[in-house]
Specification:
Low-confidence stretches: 2-40, 195-208, 232-236, 260-275, 845-853
Distance between the termini: 65 Å
CATH topology of the largest domain: Cytosolic phospholipase A2 catalytic domain
CATH architecture of the largest domain: 3-Layer(aba) Sandwich
Radius of gyration: 31 Å
Number of strands: 41
Number of domains: 3
Number of helices: 17
């Protein structure tokens, strides 16, 4: 916080108002850890920033020089901005103003210095922003730097930095090398509204129906109101709580009510604005005991600290959770027995070392993909391969198939023709009943209940209820965490559902973050942050569960995973194969590296100083229009408040998924709002493969079941290119021109030992036209059943088609079933290769390629 932030308090104390009293104290709330690998206690530092002046300042006004001030923002130290005074009509303004920030050295601290032009009528103009990595300054070092903003015009900003360790003050943190959870303090604010009689006026004073508003920026609560008096329609508590980062230097802003004074028995009351708004820095208060912050004629506001030490309710780590590790151990027993059977092995496989991890991934495609997945899984079951599979992932409408199957805790051990017969009835049935009066009333009731529970509503919630009505005859109460019963003995593959977290004003190509859902956890792959599935949707702050909200029914998650309403214009441009560069040129701000004098020595984790020049209002409006999404799903952000580690850009797990324009801008990346904004993964790349490429899962074989419309190679091409750019081990999937013009039913890709073997099934109708089963030719009367036009993205299998005829359903189901059965030899060869790989890896011998073409 800057010195300017303290001046109102200094003036207030000097005024010695007899009706207000402020006392000083600082408290803390520790959070003990029991982990063996607890890091060393990091050092807190005091950063002093002196804004000296500018030279050759650019002109922002037509008729005069710029009315300039500098705004400072260091969000890791305080969520409140501070600023210098304004120097009017000056080309070389001088400030010589000093500001102070308490920082945590383990956190990536990037100070933003924004040069602004003050306007009296219109909003102030932001001329430029300098982002400076504080890690460049060493403790005990005073550095005076000149930032070259425009070398041609010799425009410079001169700033002095001083960094000092704070002796005797330490903070315990929890980190996974990417995110940092810091200590949290909790304060109670209490209002005593006992009627008082003014010793000066002898008037009775009443506060009935009056509100006290308390604001603490950067806290979990942000704003709290206390309503006093029995006349309030909803009487509020006389106390409230704030949770905040212990060393974040917040202010408690108090908006005090006007006091109502009754003169004797006169019914006419007069309002006196005795006490105006007040801003109190918490680090100026001694919170060891209950202390008065402000006292009026009829009330007293006091603040005290509440001790509430507790462990994190969020898991920070890139390893698999304990429950999934236990599942893999149990599942490998099932897989080992199944592999011995299908591969006709002479010896049992050693579960820990020789059993490969096999996964099935699917792609989006509406009811087409849901139906196709049933056909593929039925074939895998008939081959005995379903028990060889440890994971199944889905996105969009294939999550409907998965959610339907996992309602039965033993679905893979039963004949899948039963669930297929059940889903067939819903697919061929008209969907008009979903719009009946009774259903519409049901939707309204469910949405109202969901809002009362604490969820933020969106159109995708209504879409989820529609899906539920479309695929069930009665209300489905299943939740994601209920699926734990289907995997607790390793009896079925573990399901993984995929979504993308996006940002407003950014296209999906520019900003997207993979979010995976399992029955055990929901987590962000890039950050290594996971919450229990039953806690997803609840409110978190700094890794602590602050408000438990009932777990969403799985139909609402299905609406999120298959959100067909989340596509923006920029997404369409990307998916059509065109570059976004043209739009970026007109809508993105300009970012450049800035040289500083004298040049500071840099270490690998230190970021270069950046200069940002914002675009104008027209460009911003164009950007909002191009990136606007009709609907996204809102869920409370479980990583709210967490900060980025100082060396997060060196973390291998983070860099594996580092693919957004904000990844090197920690303040913008860390400006995590109250909500995650989730969309259908297919609007970036139609794939559910990313969870299988986490090194911790050690997936050896991926069965890639493609159900997309249009090009059958585009999703695979896009994801292969993505993995290449990210440095993620993935087999080369290059196809010959001849193959691209006439796709076969199955391809197997394999190269390095680090990459999994990929068995790729495009959605094609090849030999199925002539064969109704492997090596069983069709009769002339049966040829019609082999004509399945899946290349047409429109009817009868268009992505937007929700109802099929029974004949079309059966043909698509049989096609996908046949394509798997007809390529049994390639699947078994891939499994055998994986087993041989595991043996070679165990013996540490050089890997040798296998011919899988």
């Amino acid at each position: 916080m800057g010195s300017s932030a303290y001046s109102p308090l200094d003036q207030f104390i000097q005024a010695n108002n007899p009706r207000r009293k402020i006392e000083i104290r600082k408290g803390n709330r520790g959070r003990p850890r029991s982990t063996e690998d607890e890091p060393e206690i990091p050092q807190l530092c005091w950063l002093t920033v002196k804004i000296i002046g500018m030279r050759n300042l650019r002109k922002a006004d037509l008729l005069s020089q710029t009315d300039c001030y500098v705004r400072l923002w260091l969000p890791t130290a305080s969520r409140q901005e501070v600023r210098t005074r304004t120097v009017s009509n000056c080309r070389n303004p001088v400030w010589n103003e000093t500001f102070h920030f308490m920082i945590q050295s383990e956190v990536k601290n990037v100070l933003e210095l924004t040069v602004c032009d003050e306007d009296t009528i219109t909003p102030d103009d932001q001329l430029l922003t300098v982002r400076f990595d504080v890690a460049k300054i060493q403790p005990g070092e005073k550095v005076r730097l000149s930032f070259e903003l425009n070398p041609e015009n010799q425009e410079e900003l001169e700033v002095e930095f001083l960094l000092d360790n704070i002796p005797g003050v330490s903070e315990k943190i929890v980190t996974n090398g990417v995110l940092v959870s810091r200590e949290v303090s909790c304060v109670e604010v209490q209002v005593d509204d006992t009627k008082m009689r003014s010793p000066y006026t002898r008037e009775a004073i009443d506060l009935n129906g009056r509100n006290f508003t308390f604001i603490m920026k950067g806290s979990y609560e942000e704003t709290q109101n206390i309503s006093m008096g029995p006349s309030c329609s909803q009487r509020g508590s006389d106390s409230t709580m704030f949770h905040y980062i212990k060393y974040s230097q917040p202010n408690l802003d108090v908006m005090l009510p006007k006091e109502c004074l009754y003169c004797g028995h006169d019914a006419n009351r007069r309002e006196k604005d005795i006490n105006g708004p007040l801003s109190v820095p918490l680090n100026s208060l001694d919170l060891g005991k209950k202390r008065t912050v402000v006292r009026g004629a009829s009330y007293e506001v006091s603040v005290k600290e509440e001790d509430g030490s507790k462990n994190l309710d969020l898991r920070l780590g890139f390893e698999l959770c304990a429950e999934e590790k236990d599942f893999i151990c149990k599942r490998k027993k099932v897989v080992a027995a199944a592999l011995k059977n299908v591969l006709q092995l002479d010896e049992d496989l050693q579960e820990d070392e020789q059993v490969p991890v096999v996964a099935v991934m699917t792609t989006a495609g509406g009811v087409r993909s849901m139906t196709s997945m049933f056909g593929s899984l039925l074939a895998l079951q008939e081959l005995g391969v379903l028990d060889c599979i440890s994971y199944i992932s889905g996105l969009s409408a294939t999550t409907w198939t998965m959610a339907k199957l996992y309602e039965d805790a033993n679905w893979s051990q039963k004949d899948l023709r039963g669930p297929i017969d059940d889903i067939r009835k819903y697919v061929i049935k008209s969907k008009l009943h979903c719009f009946s009066t009774d259903h519409l009333k049901y939707y309204e009731k469910e949405l109202c209940e969901r809002k009362l529970e604490g969820h933020k509503l969106s159109f995708t919630d209504l879409w989820g209820l529609f899906i539920d009505s479309m695929l069930h005859s009665e209300e489905n109460t299943h939740k994601l965490s209920d699926q734990q019963l289907a995997v607790n003995q390793g009896q079925n593959p573990l399901p993984i559902y995929l979504s993308l977290n996006v940002r407003d004003k950014f296209s999906t190509l520019d900003f997207k973050e993979w979010v995976e859902f399992t029955p055990y956890e929901v987590g962000a792959l890039k950050y290594g942050a996971f919450v229990r599935s039953e806690d997803f949707g609840s409110e978190f702050f700094m890794g602590h569960l602050m408000k438990k909200i009932p777990e969403s029914r799985i139909c609402f998650l299905e609406g999120t995973w298959s959100n067909i309403f989340s596509q923006s214009f920029m997404d369409i441009v990307y998916l059509s194969g065109h570059s976004e560069d043209f739009w970026h040129r007109w809508t993105r701000g300009t970012e450049d590296d800035v040289e500083e004098h004298p040049a500071l020595p840099t270490r690998p984790h230190e970021q270069t100083t950046r200069l940002s020049l914002p675009k104008g209002y027209l460009s911003n409006a164009l950007r909002e229009m191009m990136t606007g999404r009709p609907a996204v799903s809102y869920y409370h952000n479980f990583i709210k408040g967490l900060q980025l580690h100082n060396k997060y850009l060196e973390n291998e797990s983070f860099c594996m998924w580092k693919d957004t324009v904000l990844d090197s801008s920690p303040n913008q990346l860390n400006a995590m709002g109250d909500y995650l904004k989730l969309v259908d993964t297919a609007f970036f790349i139609n794939t559910s493969c990313p969870p299988f490429l986490r090194p911790e899962r050690k997936v050896d074989v991926i069965l890639h079941l493609n159900y997309s419309g249009g090009s059958q190679t585009l999703p695979l091409d896009l994801f292969s290119e993505y993995c290449l750019e990210q440095g993620i081990p993935f087999p080369c999937t290059e196809l010959s021109r001849e193959d691209r013009e006439h796709l076969k039913e199955c391809y197997v890709f394999q190269d390095s030992l680090e990459a999994p073997v990929l068995v790729y099934f495009p959605l094609v109708c090849d030999t199925f036209r002539r064969y109704k089963a492997p090596n069983v030719e069709r009769s002339p009367t049966d040829m019609e059943q082999g004509r399945v036009d899946v290349s047409n993205i429109f009817a009868p299998y268009g992505t937007g088609q929700l109802t099929y005829t029974e004949g079309n359903f059966n043909k698509l189901l049989n096609l996908c079933n046949y394509n798997i059965l007809n390529n049994k030899h390639l699947i078994l060869r891939a499994l055998k290769t994986a087993v041989e790989r595991k043996k070679r890896f165990k013996n540490c011998s050089p890997p040798q390629s296998s011919d899988l073409s």
